[in-house]
Amino acid sequence: MTDMKKDELAEDQAQINDPLSLDGMDAEIEALRAERDEFRDRYMRALADAENIRKRGERDRREAEQYGGSKLARDLLPVYDNLRRALDTAGDAKDDPATKALVEGVELTLRELLNTFNRHGMKPVNPQTGDSFDPQLHQAMFEAPLPGTKAGDIIQVMTEGFMLHDRLLRPAQVGVSSTPKS
After folding, report:
1. How buried is residue 86: exposed, middle or buried, by Cβ count under 10 Å (0-12/13-18/19+)?
2. What torsion, rounded to 10 degrees, do the Cα atoms 23, 29, 33, 38 define?
């Protein structure tokens, strides 16, 4: 062995035997462990953030797919209402041969519109006279006392409501009885 290598080995041995040198190494090891733990924590947080962003994006995509057309659907509801009113007012004219084809055309158009609504998850909310008023599905347009009914019973339906999947697109507009309990 050369003298230089012997000197290096002796120096290394002296550092190992030197307690101050070991404390310095321990401190350095602890600092490296703390830095490693910090990086691991930051990595895990970044990974969790990325997973949350992915889930939020997936949820937003599903909602956009289901409810993205709600504005168009809401804009089509007056068309439905007008076709329904046209059929209601044509009640006596259905027997007239001159208007029979027109009434049938309006009925077919209304049926096709309802089929399209169903294909896209729109379902009518069609309360009946005598049903109880549900503020989650109905909008009270007026209150009137009507003999033979209880307070909160539906006495007239002005327009049907519609649900888009599980959300209320438009409440059914109804008249409600205000007959006091006797």
Report:
1. middle
2. 90
Residue 174: how many other CB atoms lie within 10 Å: 25
Helix 70-89 and helix 97-119, axial crossing angle in degrees, nearest 10: 160
* pLDDT for the residue 146: 85
Q: Which CATH superfamily is domain 122-182 in?
A: Head domain of nucleotide exchange factor GrpE (2.30.22.10)
What pTM, to 2 d.p., does this model score? 0.66
As a whole number of angstroms, the distance between CA 23 and CA 120 comes to 72
Length of the chain: 182
Provide the β-strand partners of residue 124. Answer: 162
